[in-house]
Every structure is written in structure tokens, then in C-alpha cells.
Amino acid sequence: SRPASWRERLAGSALARSLGGLIRRETPIDANLLDDIETCLLTADVGVAASEEVMAELRRAVDRKAITSAAALVEHLRAKLVSMLQGVSSPLNIESGQKPFVILTVGVNGVGKTTTIGKLARRFADERKSVILAAGDTFRAAAVEQLQQWGERNQVPVIAQGQGADSAAVIFNAMQAAQSRQADILIADTAGRLHTQAGLMDELAKVKRVLGKLDAGAPHEVLLVIDGTTGQNAVHQVRQFSKAVAVTGLVVTKLDGSAKGGVIFALAREFGIPIRFVGLGEKVHDLRSFDADAFVGALLP
Ligand code: GDP
To answer: So where does GTP get bound (predicted)?
Structure first.
């Protein structure tokens, strides 16, 4: 079956619904409308700074009579929103000759980290790449089991030890296995505990250290998974994880359904970290390479 379009997936988001309700063909372009759009951006988690940037641009364009119709307003909004995401639109490139290409996945519990790893593995396997998974979230038994079950269903090897095992040791073993089997890609899960910043830093530093013993360049990508429904808390999580490890890419999940949809703009403006993928649903093909045009287009009426 055909994968759902971005518009279908994002239609339920607060941003798409409220912009669609506000901007209709006959809507007069006036200060009230602009105020309503600003409120709608703020309510949808776009964040104060990013919303102000968008509104300044729209107000200038209205003042100089460059926007006199709803259609022109949508076009200006589209151009501005896309331009704000330009700097973070950079797909993950794994054709760099690293073998295995090591992806370390980090993020707090419940954001969709395990699901994302499964979807990614499947995507790479579909591209005829050999993938090995490391069940490095040893803190939760359920996380190890979930990854193992997923690996069995999809015939992707999963290197795991029991709950409570040392995460760095599991990832080290998996890296050795990936090297000896000449796998193309290793995706390592990590424990999503954020309750002590020091613990998180120590753990991730140790993982990097042991990987570095086997390949000085590893990890080649540190993917931070963020739940798109958590609003400004997402900004806090990126800040916390960035203190512990050099995050090189973001995955923003759960943008389908009733997500607010605006947090990507806040993240882009605040951090400039590439958004590699977005989660638009629970199925395998719902993990999409981030595409700013498709994303913004789906939010606008
Ligand atoms: P983890 O604790 O971070 O490993 O989270 P899980 O991978 O177990 O995911 C938590 C829940 O979020 C599961 O029910 C997933 O199916 C769901 N989930 C993950 N990604 C998405 C997404 O993009 N959209 C939706 N709607 N649900 C998602």
C-alpha cells in the first residue's frame, strides 16, 4: 500500500488545523489576522523567538503591500518557514566509507527511541545494507526484549546481555561483532535516564571511549530522539543531552495525530542541529527523512 502523504499524516496537528481555520480565501489581511496567526504559532510550540521572527517578516510584507491576499500570505509564510528549516535540512549520509557506520541513539524513555531504531534498521535493510543492533538500554528489561523481538521478526541480529549489564560493554561487544561480520551499520541503543546529568555524561562518555578503542571515528552519528508532543520540554532535552555528548542529528517523533507540530521550528532556531528524520506514525514507513518543503507544505492550508 502507498505510504500516507505528509499532509495526511500532519493534518491532525494543532498547527495545521489552526492555520487552516484562520487563513481562508476571503480572509481580510489585517492586524487581527496577524495577531491570530501569532497566537497560533505560540500555541503550537513554535516558541517565542521563532514566532517573533516569522511575524516580523509577515508584518513587514503586509506593511509594504506585498501581501494583500490569503494566497500571498500563505506563500510568504511558506517561504519563511522553509527558510528557517534550511540550515537543519541535511539528510544522514552513511556513504562515507565507514564500515561499520556507527549510529548511537540517545533520548529519554518513551520518546520512541526503540521504535525509531527498528524503523531505521528496516530502512537500511531495505537498501540492502547489513545492520547489527546493540541493545545498550540495559536499564530496562523491556527495552532489551523489545529490540530482540523486533530483530527476530525482521531478521536483524541484535547483540544483547541481560538487564543491568554494562551498557558500554554491550555496545563494545556489538561493535566487535559488527567489525568481524563486516556489517555496514551498527545502531546502538542507550539507556534513557536523565535523572542525573552526571550519570548520563559518564555513561555516554564511556560508550564513546570504548567505541573509540575499536574505531577512532566512532560513533559517526549521535542521534537524539525527541518526542514532538512534549513542547518546550524538547528544547530542554536537547540542551541536556548536548552537554553530555556531541549530538549530530535529531529525530523528532510523534508528529502525526494531535501533535502541536511547531517544536521543530523552535529546535531549528535554538540549536541548528540537523533534523535527520521525523516520525509520522507507528509503522515502519512512517519514519521519513526530514524534508522541509514537504513538512511546511503539509502544515499550510
Ligand atoms: P522508547 O521508550 O523511547 O524506546 O519508546 P518506544 O520506542 O517504546 O515508543 C513509545 C511509544 O511511542 C510506542 O507506543 C510507539 O509505537 C510510539 N511511537 C514511536 N514513534 C511514533 C511516531 O512517530 N508516531 C506515533 N504516533 N507513535 C510513535
So the answer is: 107-114, 189-193, 253-256
Cell numbers representing residue 248 in the block: 549530530
Which atom of ligand 1 is nearest the CA belonging to 137? 4
| Model confidence pLDDT, tens digit, residues 254-301 | 999 888 889 999 999 999 999 999 999 998 889 999 999 999 999 999
- CB atoms < 10 A from the CB of 34, how many? 16
Contact 157, 134 (CB under 8 A): no
Mutate to test the pocket of ligand 1, among 8, 10, 223, 282 (most ligand atoms within 8 A of CB): 282
Ligand 1 centroid–CA 145 distance in Å is: 15
Confidence at residue 287, expressed as pLDDT on a 0 to 100 scale: 96
Query: How far is residue 300's CA from residue 215's CA, in Å, rounded to a whole number?
Result: 45
CA of 285 to the centre of ligand 1 (A): 14
Report ipTM (2 d.p.). Answer: 0.98
Rounded distance from Cα 112 to ligand 1 centre (Å): 4
Q: Please state which of the ranges 99-103, 199-203, 214-218 shows the lowest mean pLDDT.
A: 199-203
Q: What is the rounded (10 degree) CA torsion for 179, 180, 183, 187?
A: -50
